[in-house]
Amino acid sequence: MFWNTIAKFKKKGVLGMNARNVAYIARYNERHLFPLVDDKLKTKHAARKHNIKVPDLYGVIRYTAEMNDLGAMLNPLTGFAVKPLRGSGGKGIIIITGRDGENFLKPSGKVMTLGDIRHDISNILSGVYSLGGRPDTAIIESLIRGQPDMLKYSFEGLPDIRVIVFRGFPVMAMMRCPTSQSDGKANLHQGAVGVGLDICTGKAIRAVQRNSLVDRHPDTGVDFSDLAIPDWDEILMLSAKCYDMTGLGYIGCDFVLDETRGPMILELNARPGLAVQIANGIGLKSRLDVIEKLEHFDLHADERVALVHEKFGAPPVAA
């Protein structure tokens, strides 16, 4: 039974964790390049050099003593995000969308005091959310205002788009939609909905919540079949440029759609998970194989995107 299951997965081109680690991450991602994506400040600086949009940086807190100026830093802000510099999986992120006098409002309407934010930043500094539990740094960024047409696919939080890029070629993508079950976070393991996206058009293929197919958002009731990501060509181009920016051959690029600025890089991941296969209902390895068989890789980003359309676009409909 076990070996039959493994054979079925291989036949469908499903990429497993061990194969991902050995054949792709270890082979195509040089270790000395990891800090560029594990450290959000380094990612932000590199993105700006490559004309890739990122949220504005309001402040950086590295030491407890620097929190003495936190009140003055936050006082003029009505919306912002606090993030661990080396965090992962969305842990430790504080999103503030409004004010109630001297207090701060989360997307759910929950009130946070300045003391609450200080406490959460203290946890960030102590390494509660960092990779390996090492002492960390807190960064304070501008709040991303989501595009109204996309917010209907989300509960309280902001949906994001994950694109898997292999050797500079975007090969598979999904949108992660927060739900009440995921506490407004775009985390599939906590109950967010993963919507598989056609890599060439950005249109929804199917939607999955906790490995079960769904037709509608469990909180908003919106039908996922109508989902089509705006500015999709720009997202593909930015994804391809992330390879040029980082030098990492196997990478997950996370985007958000800002109401005024359009697609922006939220973060990059040198060890992207494999749930994108479940969201799309197809295996990732078959697409990675197509890219590995290409004869030329010394191409500009626009040429790589054109090849993605050629290799993974829908075949012409017979007359």
Description of the structure:
The structure is a single chain. The protein is an alpha+beta fold and 319 residues long. It folds into 2 domains: 13-52 and 147-312, D-amino Acid Aminotransferase, Chain A, domain 1; 57-142, Dna Ligase, domain 1, CATH 3.30.1490. 31% of the residues lie in helices and 23% in strands. It has helices spanning 2-11, 17-28, 35-38, 40-49, 70-74, 114-125, 148-151, 232-246, 275-280, 285-292, 301-312; strands at 57-61, 80-84, 94-96, 98-100, 103-105, 111-112, 138-142, 160-166, 169-177, 193-197, 204-209, 212-214, 250-258, 262-269. Strands 12-11-10-9-8-13-14 form a 7-stranded antiparallel β-sheet. Strand 13 (250-258) and strand 14 (262-269) form a beta hairpin. It is globular and about 60 Å long. The N and C termini lie far apart (43 Å).
